[in-house]
Amino acid sequence: MPINAKNLSVCVFCGSRFGTEPAYKQSAVDLGTGLAERNMRLVYGAGDVGLMGAVATAAQKAGGETFGVIPEHLLNWEVGKRDLSAFVVTETMHERKKVMFKNSDAIVVLPGGAGSLDEFFEVLTWAQLKLHAKPIILVNVDGYWDPLLALVDHSVDKGFADASLKQLFVVDDTVEAVLDRLAPSDT
User: What SS3 class is residue 40?
Assistant: First the structure.
């Protein structure tokens, strides 16, 4: 699924916490830096905490464009990062996801909790319903998403989803593989 295009807008769903493993934060830093270095715009939840804050700060430090979207009720909780290239405040979580999705060309999911799972399954469901064909990429840092992948297999095995569901997203183990998939480097 290489896109082979520069100047993409990439929606990143990820945790508002750092998680227990240093590799999670490092993957967020590497992704933010890599997006900026390859002239891709970061679209994300506008938080300045956890992996969200790490990916945005890294993109900014590398000179990248950042587009953040946050619902009004999370401005204080997720510490809305107001120094972004674009900062949008929405009324609801649903509107937040819609604005992020509409302003992106691809979706990348780093480790995260219930919010990241909600975001992943919403864009996956939309793809299943043929409402979009944007790439959806899970970054399986240190096997973080293995239980999710087992659950998807389980839902297929038990007849609640068609096997084609697994073709609607890809899994990469490293940020570098994700970046190469989105926009292969010239080197």
Answer: coil
